Amino acid sequence: MAAWAERLAGVRGVLLDISGVLYDSGAGGGTAIAGSVEAVARLKQSPLKVRFCTNESQKTRRELVGLLQRLGFDISEEEVTAPAPATCQILKERGLRPHLLIHEGVRSEFDDIDMSNPNCVVIADAGEGFSYKNMNRAFQVLMELENPVLISLGKGRYYKETSGLMLDVGGYMKALEYACGIEAEVVGKPSPEFFKSALRAIGVEAHQAIMIGDDIVGDVGGAQQCGMRALQVRTGKFRPSDEHHPEVKADGYVDNLAEAVDLLLQHMDK
Amino acid sequence: MAAWAERLAGVRGVLLDISGVLYDSGAGGGTAIAGSVEAVARLKQSPLKVRFCTNESQKTRRELVGLLQRLGFDISEEEVTAPAPATCQILKERGLRPHLLIHEGVRSEFDDIDMSNPNCVVIADAGEGFSYKNMNRAFQVLMELENPVLISLGKGRYYKETSGLMLDVGGYMKALEYACGIEAEVVGKPSPEFFKSALRAIGVEAHQAIMIGDDIVGDVGGAQQCGMRALQVRTGKFRPSDEHHPEVKADGYVDNLAEAVDLLLQHMDK
């Protein structure tokens, strides 16, 4: 066992990233990462509390869970913390009426939100929806507001599909921030509030929890800043240079979720 | 005369921005800004040296000049400093073979550039060409390079067309910088090297020169950082808040190019 595995002591809860850890998205829905279906099953049979914590914003929670179930995962909608539902709550609380720059696949999450006469812009991973025309419209809405509010569902740099690396929402958030001279509010990882809401859902304190993700900054760095431990998997968007990241060092690096779960359960047995 | 007009003493050369100062681009080519055709003519009849200094990168210099001539301006290709020719020179000097993310209208400027097996990305105001697919391809090229080089033709936040404010290349440059974790090299305003090459072309020192533009940061701030004076016109992308910009204060604000030229020529007469 790696020396760092000592750091797994006292873990009571596990937050799992989805894309790049459970599966790689892509044509036809994507493919499960080898060993991950069994790893999730073993985790859920153990005494550890498990919560899925994703920045997925191209699909509704329902669709994402349906896809994962079809790939063989034991997962339900109630076990997933995702940014779109969290955003809807914020919009309602603050009386914000969004102009949406989002993927069509997630639009139904906003069905009961008032979108008349927008007073903010909500941006998410819109994929092909990030056309110049759509970006320019979001820009124009922001420039017409006296107090422009930009909410971004995550700020990921990129993710991995089966066909290759894909630009995530983060760059487009930066583009609007720069063009408008504003700063976005991020709902999703690595926002501390987002991790905390996932932990609250399983009743586990940050110091008793570990995050497992493929994003060295969004998953690992974000979780650590909340007082959690974090492992990076060498699947999904992982790149070898991540192990020498100038600012973030994971508590451990594992080949995949299966190895992470092996170590967590071995450690529990001691 | 405004008190600040005292600062116009000793001006020998004038750099003129084009879009938003001479004309507003838009459907059908655009429209001249009232008084600007005559203002350019009067400047060129005066002893002042004149150079056009633009970040225009949707059109070739030839097309831009042709358009301006049709609008009535006295201007020739040799009088224009523009980023595409400057970029081609840099590419040749450094043996760089670009993947281009640019507007079709400017592609012919790169006709004699080797683009096989790209080892850098050149980004310019691509307009509708800023599709997700094109951005993602540029991103993937950069991520595959050991030493990714991103050259951006300007870094403007936005410009004004007759139909409204339009996102410029700057936001898209920021998006790629963020997604790839790199810093772009800017060719164009506000790069000091770009202003200096415009000044060299008319043989005028920075302290004897004044920039007239509609961009408080790119034109005014950039020129001032080179030791030039700079006026902002209240045309083009000018917004009232520019007069209270937190970091940049123009040497003077004028309603349009005609007023700027009035002041410059009045001051010369004294």
From TrEMBL, chains A, B:
Classification via SUPFAM superfamilies: HAD-like
Keywords assigned: Cytoplasm, Hydrolase, Magnesium, Metal-binding, Nucleus
Reaction(s) catalysed by this chain's protein: diphosphate + H2O = 2 phosphate + H(+)
Metal-binding listed as a keyword: yes
One CC-aspect GO term: nuclear speck
Enzyme class: hydrolase
Protein's cellular compartments: Cytoplasm; Nucleus
Pfam families in the cross-refs: Hydrolase_6, Hydrolase_like
Any GO BP: phosphate-containing compound metabolic process
Principal subcellular localization: cytoplasm
EC nos: 3.6.1.1
Listed cofactors: Mg(2+)
Top-level taxon of the source organism: Eukaryota
GO molecular function: inorganic diphosphate phosphatase activity; metal ion binding; phosphatase activity; protein homodimerization activity
Membrane listed as a keyword: no
Homology family: Belongs to the HAD-like hydrolase superfamily.
Its biological purpose: Phosphatase that hydrolyzes imidodiphosphate, 3-phosphohistidine and 6-phospholysine. Has broad substrate specificity and can also hydrolyze inorganic diphosphate, but with lower efficiency.
PANTHER family, per database record: 4-NITROPHENYLPHOSPHATASE-RELATED, PHOSPHOLYSINE PHOSPHOHISTIDINE INORGANIC PYROPHOSPHATE PHOSPHATASE
Protein name in the entry: Phospholysine phosphohistidine inorganic pyrophosphate phosphatase
Species of the source: Cricetulus griseus
Lineage: Eukaryota, Metazoa, Chordata, Craniata, Vertebrata
